[in-house]
Amino acid sequence: MTDTPLNPPDRHFDMAALAGDERYRLLASSIMPRPIAWVVTCDAMGRVNAAPYSFFNMFGADHPVVALGLLPRPDRPKDTAANIIATGEFVVNLVPYALAEAMNQTCIDAPPGTDELDLAGLATRPSLAIRPPRITASPVAFECVQRHRLETGPGQLLIVGEVLHAHFAGHLLTGDPTRPRIDADALDLVGRMHGPTAYTRTRDQFDLSRPIWQDSLPPEQGEPKEKLENDNG
Ligand SMILES: Cc1cc2nc3c(=O)[nH]c(=O)nc-3n(C[C@H](O)[C@H](O)[C@H](O)COP(=O)(O)O)c2cc1C
């Protein structure tokens, strides 16, 4: 096949040959959608700070581990980074569509000590085990403590946290109360997409059954099923 404007050639990019903002653009515009951690921290004086972070995910359940990627700012560290370094504590609140605007307001580059939740008119309630509060309107919040901190580049941090407590709004929980399920539609979370302004909703879902090796074997060769169903990643 010849390369024409209608059929442009595939390309590769050597990361080492690119400027930082180009690397950011290529990665952040393709590794998506990303969940958003709406992170509440306190500084050493107890002043509350909030900001959204989409370099975020869970990385295990035993221990229950989440991680945040905090990029440097040219003039000073992000308040979230400074506060986690100072206190080792943070709350991750999740962001439903109804709170997307409010979340966006809290990404403002306000000076240290500014309570972005106050600016956005958001109430908080105390956490159980740590000083930073959680956002009352957020339907899911995780109280976290820092377990590891890696500097993955100049001023660029990867914070690995352990979830101590998980809070869920009652209307999200369905089924057997001893082993509740989360109603994903009711949760209606948003995710971060490419560029500074694009988001997506999590309502466009489809299901795929997982292939199981055992099911392709004659019954006498199959192992007990419980053994094989633990791979939940
Ligand atoms: C949806 C969204 C996701 C963001 N994700 C990140 C991120 O993963 N890492 C980061 O360093 N900044 C991220 N930002 C930018 C920070 O929120 C922004 O720099 C903010 O001012 C930092 O506030 P702080 O100094 O109070 O921590 C994101 C912004 C938005 C709106």
UniProtKB/TrEMBL annotation:
SMART domains to which the protein is assigned, alphabetical: Flavin_Reduct (SM00903)
SUPFAM superfamilies, A to Z: FMN-binding split barrel (SSF50475)
Record-linked InterPro entries: Flavin_Rdtase-like_dom (IPR002563), Split_barrel_FMN-bd (IPR012349)
GO molecular function: FMN binding; oxidoreductase activity, acting on the CH-NH group of donors, NAD or NADP as acceptor
Keyword set includes Flavoprotein: yes
Cofactor: FMN
Region Disordered: start-end pairs: 209-233
Domain Flavin reductase like: 29-178
Biased amino acid composition, Basic and acidic residues: 222-233
Annotated keywords: Flavoprotein, FMN
KW Cell division (keyword) present: no
A Pfam match: Flavin_Reduct
Highest taxon of source: Bacteria
PANTHER family, alphabetized: FLAVIN REDUCTASE LIKE DOMAIN-CONTAINING PROTEIN, FLAVOPROTEIN OXYGENASE
Family: Belongs to the flavoredoxin family.
Name of protein: Flavin reductase family protein
Source species: Paracoccus aestuariivivens
